Amino acid sequence: MTRQMVRKIIHIDMDAFYASVEQRDFPAYRGKPLVVGGSPEGRGGVVATASYEARKFGIRSAMTSKKAQQLCPYAIFVRPRFAAYKEVSVKIREIFRRYTDLIEPLSLDEAYLDVTVDKLNIGSAITIAEEIKKAIKEELSLTASAGVSINKFIAKIASDMNKPDGLTFIGPSRIEAFMEQLPVEKFFGVGKVTAEKMKRQGLFIGKDLKQLTEHRLVQLFGKTGKFFYKIVRGIDDREVRPNQEIKSISAEDTFMDDLDRGEELDDWLSQITKSAYKRQQYYQIYGRTITLKIKFGDFKIITRSQSFPIPIVALEDILAVTHQLLANADLNGKKIRLLGVSFSNFGEVKLRERKIADQTTLFPQD
């Protein structure tokens, strides 16, 4: 790369965001194992996030509250306050905008920033990341971790390396050696199923992937193989896109054990639907088309969808649709490995409908 071509990318990821906001706002929670989402005594639901005190017991996001309660019987469970988290997220974005307008939010608590040319002519992406972290700590009483590199993929991985309150820089000269030693499960976007498939092929670290041709990677992993071929060499040309048009919003989860149709599968579908719905709320767009994705134990995938003349706003209506799509799907007695829910065909929502959507709780009282 020439000097002119090298980008300066920062990935900012808030530390245990929901839990940290709760601990900031409610001193009684500080220093204690706190679980946001689910319910106490394992009565249902999944963990949205957990404080670092809770993570010491092995509690992680997307874990069932029943499992979380088993790991830490005296953990404190609280329901999410998404309005509060969004308010804080807006303030974080305001801090970002002091340095650049090239901001690509990924969720309420993380974003990419392109500071190749920054507003304050600081020039150093590391210095900018330090200043952003300092502002978040002093103004919002929260901590963030930052990854700095020349592309989005490496910056994303770097931000997770020294949490909490970390800052990691991976420069151009280090990237290929870094990627060669990176375990495949640490590759952003590689889930448990793909990681297992890689390991069955004898692919455990980036160096192993690097030995394969692009053609062979495509044979093994489809079009994603082309991405693996480039990224293991540190090549990621994706731009930070602040105004990227959103064509679909989705959430999915792969189960530790394949599931039969039943109450446990229904519970998982509800939580996945709520996760996708939360993302719609963040972007304030709502879809006319709802699609259910089902992957079976033999890796065959089917989809079922339903479209409507107007956007579907109410969570209870969306839940009814996704559960009906599952009920109508012919599973042929197969067990299910993955469920996914996506929204597309977005449309205008009237003010009254938008208010209803904003007020819909994602974790309703039983």
TrEMBL record:
Its cofactor is Mg(2+). Pfam families: IMS, IMS_C, IMS_HHH_1. Binds 2 magnesium ions per subunit. It is found in: Cytoplasm. One of its GO terms (cellular component) is cytosol. GO terms for biological process: DNA repair; DNA-templated DNA replication; error-prone translesion synthesis; SOS response. The keyword Cytoplasm applies. GO terms for molecular function: damaged DNA binding; DNA-directed DNA polymerase activity; magnesium ion binding. The record marks 18 as: Substrate discrimination. Mg(2+) binds at residues 13, 109. Residues 9-191 form the UmuC domain. PROSITE patterns: UMUC (PS50173). Its main location: cytoplasm. The active site is at 110. Monomer. This is DNA polymerase IV. It comes from Pedobacter insulae.
